[in-house]
């Protein structure tokens, strides 16, 4: 495939995703800055690695960057995946910047208290990432919380969350954010004796399975 054909296919996919999201959620399309390639920590942002595209407003972080001119010359403090929307979490800010675990990539996603555990997320929390389509929620990947808008600003409601995910999940996660609402749930151990495994049994379910069948057989022989 030639470079021109590849660029055309990428553009067509982006336009199709925008149409689907607009049909599903309604609202207005707004211009935002996205990475046109993977941007590494220390790279300077300019027109060679960022561009303006239209996204559905309701699926964007509240402080998504909208002007290439405002970003030009700033330095990325963490890896920015290709097609990710630029937001402050990726850029220079007070402190030591994002600490992305080795072998993982940082992705900034739009969120709100309803879809981010009421906004009670903390740096280092392990979460599961779900995307809802047509009334069905699918788990995309596990992730670690690196930062949130509330933590970065010292208060207020959550409008974005930066996640550390496996690089293999980056593309699917970014595509999902253009088409549906992402929900974060805290990954935790199931309460002891309360809940069932996938086969309908649990650690507190006595008298079920093969042991239960043996017990019933014994009663019949008595």
Helix content: 25-40%
Secondary-structure element pattern, one letter each = HEEHEEEHEHEH
Number of helices: 5
Count of domains:
1
Q: In CATH's first tier, which class applies?
A: Alpha Beta
Gross geometry: globular
Oligomeric form: single chain
State Rg: 22 Å
Count the beta strands.
Answer: 7
Q: In percent terms, what proportion of residues is strand?
A: 15-25%
CATH superfamily: Antifreeze-like/N-acetylneuraminic acid synthase C-terminal domain
CATH topology: Type Iii Antifreeze Protein Isoform Hplc 12
Describe the model.
With 222 residues, this protein is an alpha+beta fold. Helix content is 26%, strand content 23%.
TL;DR?
The protein contains five helices and seven strands. By secondary structure, the chain is α+β, with helices and mostly antiparallel strands. It has one domain (3-192): Type Iii Antifreeze Protein Isoform Hplc 12.
Chart the SSEs and their pairings.
Blueprint: H1 3-25, E1 29-35, E2 50-56, H2 68-71, E3 105-110, E4 126-133, E5 136-148, H3 149-153, E6 160-165, H4 167-179, E7 182-186, H5 209-221
Antiparallel strand pairs: 1-2, 3-6, 4-5, 4-7, 5-6
Task: Name the features.
alpha+beta; two-stranded antiparallel sheet; five-stranded antiparallel sheet; Type Iii Antifreeze Protein Isoform Hplc 12; disordered C terminus
